[in-house]
Design goal:
28% strand; 6-stranded mixed β-sheet; globular; alpha+beta; 10-stranded antiparallel β-sheet
Length: 413
């Protein structure tokens, strides 16, 4: 390199020296370009500008767009900003979460979390949303179901092959070949961790069910006349933080704390048999939670979460019940109404009533499911309140009061 720079600095009028300078400069540029190419090649697929093509259907018309793609630990991820731009929406990365808007809908997804929160429902993705180089990315397999549930948009992938740069030599040149998408890009099936042991002294003997069917016994075997077995599901856990408040309180921590208090209180005051999907900070997919609950042949599943909103003033308790006019849906709505009343009386907080929405937990579940949001972590004052043992006890008292009232009502039927 010293020869190159000395050639560049020399001031000589001879044609020979001009030619030497030009020769060294051209070859120096070639070396730099080849070096940059090899560095990018060695950096892997995530750094080579891969794209995936999608189609969105709105108003009976189809529109095509492309979005950047990259490999994240063996899973193909798509840029959320480019996905939202492709459908005509907007995406912003905020501290600990991502805000997405389309039309009149606003959606929140936690970073490194699978939890999705909208004004009408909450559901989980198969893979966490991740932050890479300051941008938010979503797993390709999660894109179609996410847009359908969050924005009621039909988004489908149109390109089954992505250009994977491969170095090959030919005639002394480096050639970039396009290869079809191979199985190394397909997200591996998650390993099923051992579900948390149920919090009951009595062993439960249930014949194993097929995971392909969600582990769901027939509803006829579950719907007993009276509630006897309750499954408590603390939301999120492990790498899935859920919503994180400004004060640092994570939804996964809050839901587990309230769940443990609820299990202990119900065990002391009722004859119910109690089970928890997790009793520690562990990862569980929705499918694993459903399968565990079905194995326990529960009569009710209560899923505990926290709320999130773009308004820092939003506060209070919300109870969600699944849609449906069948026996499961009817019992779930009756239970949700009882919980809403009990929580309102015990906490003296704003109760936003019962919201009937599609709940992913209810899919394949052989029992009624009710989801409770105990407060808003996006509200600084309420986050501080939710951290106190005293307020968590009031929340538990409200849930217990609601369940007890429903049990009394069913005894009279």
């Amino acid at each position: 390199m010293s020869t190159i720079w000395s050639g560049l600095r020399c001031k000589c009028n001879s044609e020979k020296h001009r030619g030497d300078v030009l020769y060294h400069t051209k070859h120096w540029r070639k070396r730099v370009l080849v070096s940059f190419f090899l560095m990018a090649l060695l950096a892997g697929p995530g750094a080579m500008g891969l794209t995936a093509s999608f189609e969105v259907s709105t108003g009976g018309e189809a529109r095509h767009f492309s979005a950047a793609a990259r490999d994240v630990q063996g899973v193909l991820y798509i840029s959320l900003a480019e996905l939202l731009a492709g459908v005509g929406g907007d995406c912003r990365v905020l501290p600990a979460r991502v805000q997405m808007e389309y039309g009149m809908r606003t959606v929140l997804v936690g970073l490194n979390s699978v939890g999705v929160n909208t004004s009408q429902q909450s559901f989980d993705l198969s893979h966490p949303v991740v932050l890479v180089e300051g941008k938010a990315w979503m797993a390709k397999d999660d894109v179609p179901p996410f847009f359908e549930r969050a924005f009621v948009l039909e988004v489908s992938e149109q390109q089954k092959q992505l250009p994977t740069p491969v170095a090959a030599q030919g005639n002394g040149r480096v050639v970039v070949q396009e290869l079809p998408l191979t199985e190394e890009w397909v997200a591996p099936a998650p390993e099923s961790p051992t579900p948390a042991e149920p919090l009951t002294a009595e062993p439960v003997s249930v014949a194993p069910t097929s995971p392909a069917q969600g582990g769901a016994p027939t509803p006829a075997a579950i719907l007993r006349k009276h509630i006897e077995r309750v499954v408590i599901d603390p939301g999120h856990g492990g790498n899935d933080l859920g919503t994180v408040g400004a004060g640092g309180l994570a939804e996964k921590t809050l839901s587990l704390s309230v769940a443990k208090r609820l299990a202990a209180h119900l065990k002391e005051t009722t004859p119910l048999k109690l089970f928890m999907t997790r009793d520690e900070d562990s990862d569980l997919t929705v499918r694993e939670r459903v399968a565990f609950a079905n194995r326990q042949q529960g009569d009710l599943l209560i899923s505990l979460h926290a709320g999130a909103s773009f308004s820092s003033h939003a506060h209070g308790v919300a109870v969600f019940s699944p849609m449906g006019k069948d026996k499961l849906g009817t019992r779930a709505q009756r239970l949700a109404e009882g919980l809403a009343v009990g929580l309102g009386e015990a906490t003296e907080s704003s109760v936003q009533g019962v919201r009937v929405v599609p709940l992913r937990l209810q899919e394949g579940l052989g029992m009624p499911c009710v989801l409770v949001e105990v407060g808003y972590l996006t509200n600084t004052a309420e986050e501080a309140l939710l951290q106190t043992e005293a307020y968590q006890e009031r929340l538990v008292q409200g849930i217990v009061k609601g369940i007890t009232q429903v049990l009394q009502d069913e005894e009279e039927l």
